[in-house]
Design brief:
- The chain is an alpha+beta fold.
- It has a single domain (about 5-390), classed as Orthogonal Bundle (Cytochrome p450).
- It is built from 16 helices and 14 strands.
- The protein has helices at about 15-20, 20-30, 45-55, 70-75, 80-90, 100-120, 130-145, 150-165, 175-200, 205-210, 220-230, 235-250, 250-260, 265-275, 305-310, 345-360; strands spanning about 5, 5-10, 35, 40-45, 60, 125, 280-285, 290, 295, 300-305, 365-370, 375, 385, 390.
- The strands form four sheets. Strands 2-3-4-10-7-5 form a six-stranded mixed beta sheet, sandwiched between helices.
- β3 (about 35) and β4 (about 40-45) form a beta hairpin.
- α8 (about 150-165) packs across α11 and α12 packs across α16 (about 345-360).
- The longest helix is centred in the middle third of the chain and has 27 residues, at about 175-200.
- The protein is globular, with a radius of gyration of 21 Å.
- It starts with a strand and ends with a strand.
- Bound molecules: protoporphyrin IX containing FE.
- Protoporphyrin IX containing FE binds next to α7, α11, α12 and α16.
Length: about 400
C-alpha cells in the first residue's frame, strides 16, 4: 500500500542544526520519505532507499533549473544528468588521477601540513579548526585549483559565502550580497591565472579544464570552479576534525592506529561515516513514483540524508558509535552513482594519510580540553566548528 509522505512539524530548525541524529532516526522509523517542516523539504534517510535512488537518475534527477546552486554559481555539471554531466566530470578528471595524487599533490600537501604544524607546535594549545583544519583545506584546494597564492581566509570566506547563498531559501539580502561578492572575487582570481594555465599545461583543475577536449567554456569554468570551492573545502576540513575528535575521545582506538598505521584508512572511513561532512544533498523527482510505500509526486524536491543513512541500524551495528574496528562496509559519505564525489581519493589521501597521522605523530600527548569542549554543528554540512586541544610543547 502506498501513501503520501507523512509530516514532522514539532521540531525546530535549531534542533536539526544542534543534533540531527535523533530526528533522522525518527524519520527513518516513520517512512521512506517524510516532509520535515522546519527544513521545508521531504527527507529520505534509509540506506537502501538512497542507494535505489542513486541507481535511477532518470526518476531522480540532479538537474534542477530552479536550484539556488545554479542561481548562485551558474550552470554546473554537478546539477546535470547524462552526457552533460559526464563531459564536465571528464574535463576535471586529470587533476584527480591516482598517479597525479601520489606524485604531485601528496608531496605538496604534506609540505603545507608540515608548515602549519610547525607554526603551532611550540604553543602547546590551539583550536584545531582555525589552526590546522581550515587553513589546510583552503591552501591545498587553492593549489589544486591552480590559483595564485592568497590568504587561506579568502578562499574559506568565498566558500562559506557560496554555501550560504546556495542555502538562502529565505532570500536574505545580506547573504545574497556576500554570495555575489564571492562570485566576483572568484571570477577575478580565475581571470588572473587562466592565460598561464593555457600556456603551460599542469596538474591543476583549471589547467585540466582549459586543456580538455573540447575545452570548457569560460562560463562553465566559472560555475564549476565555484562548485569545487563550495564543495571541496568544508568537507576535508570537517573530516580532519571529526577523525581527530573520534580518536581523541577513544584512546584505545588512537593507540591501535598509532601502533598499526595501516589502520589509518579504516579510521578515515569510520570518521566520515560517523559524522558525514555532507549530511544531505538534493534530487528532483521527474515522474510520480513509489519509494518503498510512499508516493512521491512529479517535480518534488527531495533531500538525500546520507548522514542519516550512514547511521541506519539496518546496515550498521551500533551506528552512533565511532569504532574503527567495525567490519568494512561501504557507506554513503561520498554519495553514490554518477555523482560520486570527484574528490574522494584526494581526500582519503590528504586527511587519512597525511594530516591526521602527522598531527598525532608531531603533537605529543594530544588531548581534548576538559574546560573547553568541542562544538559540533550542522545537518546539511556537519562537523566540529571548534576543537580546542592541548599537547606537550
Ligand atoms: C571528506 C571530503 C569530502 C566529502 C565527504 C565529499 C562529499 C561529496 C558528496 C556527498 C558529493 C555528492 C553530491 C551530490 O551528488 O549532489 C560530492 C560531489 C562532489 N565533490 Fe566531494 N566531498 C569531499 C571532498 C571533495 C574535494 C576535496 C573535492 C575537490 C577538490 C570535491 C569535489 C567534488 C565534486 C566536483 C563533486 C561533484 C561530482 C559530480 O557531480 O559528478 N569533493 N562530494
Amino acid at each position: 500500500m502506498t501513501s503520501a509522505a507523512p509530516v514532522i512539524s514539532d521540531i525546530t530548525y535549531h534542533e536539526l542544526l544542534d543534533d540531527p541524529y535523533p530526528i533522522f532516526r525518527r524519520v527513518r522509523d516513520m517512512a521512506s520519505a517524510v516532509f520535515v517542516a522546519p527544513a521545508n523539504l521531504t527527507l529520505v534517510t534509509r540506506f537502501d532507499d538512497i542507494v535505489r535512488i542513486e541507481r535511477d537518475p532518470v526518476t531522480y534527477s540532479s538537474d534542477n533549473p530552479a536550484s539556488l546552486v545554479n542561481k548562485v554559481m551558474g550552470p554546473t555539471f554537478m546539477r546535470k544528468d547524462g552526457a552533460e554531466h559526464a563531459a564536465g566530470r571528464k574535463a576535471i578528471e586529470p587533476s584527480f588521477r591516482a598517479g597525479t595524487i601520489k606524485e604531485h599533490w601528496t608531496p605538496r600537501f604534506a609540505e603545507i601540513c608540515e608548515r602549519l604544524i610547525d607554526s603551532i607546535s611550540e604553543s602547546g594549545e590551539a583550536d584545531l579548526f582555525t589552526a590546522l583544519a581550515a587553513p589546510m583545506a583552503s591552501l591545498s584546494l587553492m593549489e589544486m585549483i591552480g590559483f595564485k597564492e592568497m590568504p587561506w581566509q579568502t578562499l574559506a570566506l568565498w566558500s562559506q559565502s557560496l554555501i550560504d547563498g546556495a542555502g538562502n531559501y529565505a532570500r536574505n539580502a545580506e547573504i545574497e550580497r556576500k554570495a555575489i561578492e564571492a562570485g566576483a572575487g572568484i571570477d577575478a582570481a580565475i581571470e588572473a591565472v587562466l592565460d598561464e594555465h593555457r600556456a603551460h599545461a599542469n596538474p591543476s583543475i583549471l589547467s585540466s579544464m582549459v586543456h580538455a577536449d573540447p575545452p570548457m567554456s569560460i562560463e562553465e569554468i566559472r560555475a564549476n570552479i565555484k562548485v569545487i570551492i563550495g564543495g571541496g573545502l568544508n568537507e576535508p576540513r570537517d573530516a580532519i576534525l571529526t577523525l581527530t575528535l573520534g580518536l581523541l575521545q577513544n584512546a584505545a582506538q588512537r593507540d591501535s592506529v598509532l601502533a598499526k598505521p595501516e589502520l589509518w584508512s579504516n579510521a578515515f572511513e569510520e570518521a566520515v561515516r560517523w559524522i558525514s561532512p555532507i549530511g544531505m544533498y538534493p534530487r528532483r523527482v521527474t515522474r510520480e513514483t513509489d519509494l518503498s510505500g510512499v508516493v512521491l509526486p512529479e517535480g518534488l524536491q527531495i533531500g538525500l540524508c546520507v548522514g542519516a543513512a550512514n547511521r541506519d541500524d539496518r546496515r550498521f551495528n551500533d551506528p552512533d558509535i565511532f569504532d574503527i574496528s567495525r567490519p568494512r562496509q561501504s557507506h554513503l559519505a561520498f554519495g553514490a552513482g554518477a555523482h560520486f564525489c570527484a574528490g574522494t581519493w584526494v581526500s582519503r589521501q590528504t586527511v587519512g594519510k597525511i594530516v591526521a597521522p602527522m598531527l598525532f605523530e608531531r603533537l605529543r600527548n594530544l588531548h581534548l580540553r576538559e574546560d573547553a569542549p568541542p562544538l559540533i554543528r550542522g545537518w546539511v554540512f556537519r562537523g566540529p566548528v571548534s576543537l580546542p586541544v592541548r599537547w606537550n610543547a
